[in-house]
Protein backbone atom coordinates (compact mmCIF):
# COMPACT_ATOMS: atom_id res chain seq x y z
CA UNK A 1 0.00 0.00 0.00
CA UNK A 2 2.75 2.44 0.92
CA UNK A 3 4.74 1.58 -2.19
CA UNK A 4 1.80 2.48 -4.40
CA UNK A 5 1.14 5.78 -2.65
CA UNK A 6 1.38 9.01 -4.62
CA UNK A 7 4.28 10.61 -2.73
CA UNK A 8 4.21 14.03 -4.46
CA UNK A 9 0.51 14.29 -3.64
CA UNK A 10 1.29 13.23 -0.06
CA UNK A 11 4.06 15.76 0.57
CA UNK A 12 2.36 18.79 -1.04
CA UNK A 13 -0.33 19.44 1.63
CA UNK A 14 2.02 18.41 4.44
CA UNK A 15 4.66 20.91 3.30
CA UNK A 16 2.03 23.63 2.96
CA UNK A 17 0.68 22.89 6.45
CA UNK A 18 4.16 23.18 7.94
CA UNK A 19 4.76 26.46 6.09
CA UNK A 20 1.40 27.86 7.20
CA UNK A 21 2.02 26.75 10.79
CA UNK A 22 5.50 28.27 10.85
CA UNK A 23 4.40 31.67 9.52
CA UNK A 24 1.19 31.81 11.53
CA UNK A 25 2.92 30.80 14.77
CA UNK A 26 5.47 33.60 14.38
CA UNK A 27 2.72 36.13 13.65
CA UNK A 28 0.41 34.95 16.44
CA UNK A 29 3.37 34.88 18.83
CA UNK A 30 4.26 38.50 18.06
CA UNK A 31 0.64 39.67 18.28
CA UNK A 32 -0.18 37.56 21.33
CA UNK A 33 2.93 38.59 23.26
CA UNK A 34 2.38 42.27 22.50
CA UNK A 35 -1.29 42.11 23.48
CA UNK A 36 -0.57 40.10 26.64
CA UNK A 37 2.20 42.46 27.71
CA UNK A 38 -0.03 45.47 27.19
CA UNK A 39 -3.05 43.95 28.94
CA UNK A 40 -1.07 42.82 32.01
CA UNK A 41 0.49 46.25 32.48
CA UNK A 42 -2.56 48.47 32.06
CA UNK A 43 -6.03 48.95 33.52
CA UNK A 44 -8.68 50.77 31.53
CA UNK A 45 -12.39 50.90 31.01
CA UNK A 46 -13.58 48.15 28.72
CA UNK A 47 -10.59 45.89 29.37
CA UNK A 48 -12.79 42.88 30.11
CA UNK A 49 -14.79 43.48 26.93
CA UNK A 50 -11.64 43.70 24.82
CA UNK A 51 -10.22 40.53 26.35
CA UNK A 52 -13.49 38.75 25.62
CA UNK A 53 -13.10 39.72 21.97
CA UNK A 54 -9.54 38.36 22.01
CA UNK A 55 -10.80 35.01 23.27
CA UNK A 56 -13.81 34.65 20.96
CA UNK A 57 -12.04 32.56 18.25
CA UNK A 58 -11.35 29.95 20.93
CA UNK A 59 -15.05 29.23 21.49
CA UNK A 60 -16.63 30.12 18.15
CA UNK A 61 -17.09 27.31 15.61
CA UNK A 62 -14.23 27.44 13.06
CA UNK A 63 -16.76 27.80 10.24
CA UNK A 64 -18.11 30.96 11.90
CA UNK A 65 -14.57 32.36 12.14
CA UNK A 66 -13.99 31.41 8.51
CA UNK A 67 -17.22 33.05 7.38
CA UNK A 68 -16.36 36.29 9.18
CA UNK A 69 -12.91 36.27 7.61
CA UNK A 70 -14.43 35.58 4.21
CA UNK A 71 -16.75 38.58 4.58
CA UNK A 72 -14.04 40.81 6.02
CA UNK A 73 -11.31 39.92 3.52
CA UNK A 74 -13.35 39.07 0.44
CA UNK A 75 -13.45 41.07 -2.77
CA UNK A 76 -16.50 43.01 -1.62
CA UNK A 77 -14.75 44.36 1.47
CA UNK A 78 -12.47 47.39 1.38
CA UNK A 79 -9.67 45.34 2.92
CA UNK A 80 -10.02 42.71 0.22
CA UNK A 81 -10.14 45.30 -2.57
CA UNK A 82 -7.11 47.12 -1.20
CA UNK A 83 -5.12 43.90 -0.83
CA UNK A 84 -6.02 42.85 -4.37
CA UNK A 85 -4.92 46.24 -5.68
CA UNK A 86 -1.69 46.09 -3.67
CA UNK A 87 -0.70 42.51 -4.48
CA UNK A 88 -2.53 42.08 -7.81
CA UNK A 89 -4.26 39.02 -6.35
CA UNK A 90 -7.14 38.42 -3.93
CA UNK A 91 -6.51 37.26 -0.38
CA UNK A 92 -9.22 34.61 -0.35
CA UNK A 93 -8.47 31.20 -1.85
CA UNK A 94 -4.74 31.75 -1.51
CA UNK A 95 -2.31 30.08 0.87
CA UNK A 96 -1.91 33.43 2.63
CA UNK A 97 -5.58 33.13 3.55
CA UNK A 98 -4.71 29.87 5.31
CA UNK A 99 -2.01 31.72 7.27
CA UNK A 100 -4.49 34.43 8.32
CA UNK A 101 -7.03 31.82 9.42
CA UNK A 102 -4.38 30.01 11.46
CA UNK A 103 -3.27 33.26 13.11
CA UNK A 104 -6.81 34.13 14.14
CA UNK A 105 -7.66 30.73 15.64
CA UNK A 106 -4.29 30.31 17.40
CA UNK A 107 -4.12 33.84 18.82
CA UNK A 108 -6.30 33.16 21.92
CA UNK A 109 -4.11 30.25 23.01
CA UNK A 110 -0.94 32.27 22.56
CA UNK A 111 -2.42 35.32 24.24
CA UNK A 112 -3.72 33.44 27.29
CA UNK A 113 -0.45 31.55 27.77
CA UNK A 114 1.65 34.69 27.43
CA UNK A 115 -0.61 36.61 29.77
CA UNK A 116 -0.07 33.96 32.45
CA UNK A 117 3.67 34.17 31.84
CA UNK A 118 3.85 37.94 32.11
CA UNK A 119 1.63 37.92 35.21
CA UNK A 120 4.04 35.52 36.94
CA UNK A 121 6.99 37.93 36.56
CA UNK A 122 7.72 39.92 39.69
CA UNK A 123 7.18 43.58 38.83
CA UNK A 124 9.51 44.53 41.66
CA UNK A 125 12.41 43.00 39.75
CA UNK A 126 11.47 44.93 36.62
CA UNK A 127 11.16 48.18 38.58
CA UNK A 128 14.50 47.54 40.26
CA UNK A 129 16.15 47.14 36.85
CA UNK A 130 14.56 50.38 35.64
CA UNK A 131 15.75 52.22 38.73
CA UNK A 132 19.26 50.94 38.01
CA UNK A 133 19.13 52.62 34.60
CA UNK A 134 17.88 49.84 32.33
CA UNK A 135 15.60 50.84 29.47
CA UNK A 136 12.45 48.92 28.55
CA UNK A 137 14.21 46.81 25.96
CA UNK A 138 16.86 45.78 28.47
CA UNK A 139 14.26 45.06 31.13
CA UNK A 140 12.38 42.81 28.74
CA UNK A 141 15.51 41.04 27.44
CA UNK A 142 17.29 40.47 30.75
CA UNK A 143 14.46 40.28 33.31
CA UNK A 144 11.05 39.53 31.75
CA UNK A 145 12.09 37.11 29.02
CA UNK A 146 14.29 34.81 31.16
CA UNK A 147 11.59 34.61 33.84
CA UNK A 148 8.78 33.94 31.37
CA UNK A 149 10.63 31.89 28.77
CA UNK A 150 8.67 28.72 29.56
CA UNK A 151 5.45 30.55 28.77
CA UNK A 152 7.01 31.82 25.54
CA UNK A 153 7.99 28.29 24.54
CA UNK A 154 4.61 26.82 25.44
CA UNK A 155 2.76 29.62 23.68
CA UNK A 156 4.76 29.15 20.50
CA UNK A 157 4.29 25.39 20.42
CA UNK A 158 0.56 25.70 21.10
CA UNK A 159 0.26 28.32 18.35
CA UNK A 160 2.21 26.16 15.91
CA UNK A 161 0.18 23.04 16.69
CA UNK A 162 -3.13 24.93 16.44
CA UNK A 163 -2.16 26.45 13.10
CA UNK A 164 -0.89 23.10 11.84
CA UNK A 165 -4.21 21.42 12.57
CA UNK A 166 -6.58 24.22 11.51
CA UNK A 167 -9.40 23.01 9.28
CA UNK A 168 -12.76 24.81 9.39
CA UNK A 169 -11.73 28.44 9.01
CA UNK A 170 -9.06 27.47 6.46
CA UNK A 171 -11.57 25.59 4.33
CA UNK A 172 -13.92 28.60 4.34
CA UNK A 173 -11.41 31.29 3.38
CA UNK A 174 -8.64 29.40 1.55
CA UNK A 175 -10.60 26.55 0.02
CA UNK A 176 -9.21 23.11 -0.78
CA UNK A 177 -7.26 23.57 -4.00
CA UNK A 178 -4.70 20.74 -4.47
CA UNK A 179 -1.18 22.09 -4.85
CA UNK A 180 -2.23 25.62 -3.92
CA UNK A 181 -4.30 25.89 -0.74
CA UNK A 182 -4.82 22.28 0.28
CA UNK A 183 -3.43 21.75 3.77
CA UNK A 184 -3.14 18.38 5.48
CA UNK A 185 -6.46 18.58 7.42
CA UNK A 186 -8.39 19.50 4.27
CA UNK A 187 -6.52 16.80 2.32
CA UNK A 188 -7.59 14.22 4.92
CA UNK A 189 -11.19 15.35 4.54
CA UNK A 190 -11.00 14.99 0.76
CA UNK A 191 -9.26 11.60 0.97
CA UNK A 192 -11.90 10.22 3.33
CA UNK A 193 -14.66 11.56 1.10
CA UNK A 194 -13.03 9.86 -1.90
CA UNK A 195 -12.52 6.58 -0.03
CA UNK A 196 -8.72 6.81 -0.18
CA UNK A 197 -7.92 5.31 3.22
CA UNK A 198 -4.20 4.92 2.48
CA UNK A 199 -3.60 8.64 1.99
CA UNK A 200 -5.95 9.54 4.83
CA UNK A 201 -4.03 7.31 7.23
CA UNK A 202 -0.65 8.55 6.00
CA UNK A 203 -1.61 12.19 6.57
CA UNK A 204 -3.29 11.42 9.89
CA UNK A 205 -0.26 9.57 11.26
CA UNK A 206 2.01 12.38 10.06
CA UNK A 207 -0.05 14.97 11.93
CA UNK A 208 -0.13 12.82 15.06
CA UNK A 209 3.66 12.41 14.90
CA UNK A 210 4.34 16.12 14.48
CA UNK A 211 1.90 17.10 17.23
CA UNK A 212 3.25 14.44 19.59
CA UNK A 213 6.85 15.58 19.10
CA UNK A 214 5.89 19.22 19.66
CA UNK A 215 4.06 18.46 22.90
CA UNK A 216 6.82 16.13 24.07
CA UNK A 217 9.41 18.84 23.45
CA UNK A 218 7.33 21.38 25.39
CA UNK A 219 6.89 18.98 28.30
CA UNK A 220 10.61 18.16 28.35
CA UNK A 221 11.62 21.82 28.41
CA UNK A 222 9.07 22.72 31.10
CA UNK A 223 9.92 19.87 33.50
UniProtKB/TrEMBL annotation:
InterPro entries on file: MetI-like (IPR000515), MetI-like_sf (IPR035906), ModB_ABC (IPR011867)
Membrane spanning residue stretches: 20-40, 52-73, 85-111, 139-161, 200-218
Main location: membrane
Keywords of the record: Cell membrane, Membrane, Molybdenum, Transmembrane, Transmembrane helix, Transport
Pfam families referenced in this protein's UniProt entry, alphabetically: BPD_transp_1
Residue ranges annotated for the ABC transmembrane type-1 domain, each copy included: 14-218
Keyword Metal-binding: no
Record localization: Cell membrane
Membrane topology: Multi-pass membrane protein
SUPFAM superfamilies linked: MetI-like
Function: Part of the binding-protein-dependent transport system for molybdenum; probably responsible for the translocation of the substrate across the membrane.
Family: Belongs to the binding-protein-dependent transport system permease family. CysTW subfamily.
Name of protein: Molybdenum transport system permease
Organism: Cohnella hongkongensis
Amino acid sequence: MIGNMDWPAFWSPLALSLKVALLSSVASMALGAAAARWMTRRSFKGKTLLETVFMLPLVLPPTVVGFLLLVGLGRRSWIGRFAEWLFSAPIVFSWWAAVIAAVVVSFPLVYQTMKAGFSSVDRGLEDAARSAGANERQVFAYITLPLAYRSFLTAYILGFARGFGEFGATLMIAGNIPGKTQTTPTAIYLAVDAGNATMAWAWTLSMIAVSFLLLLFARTKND
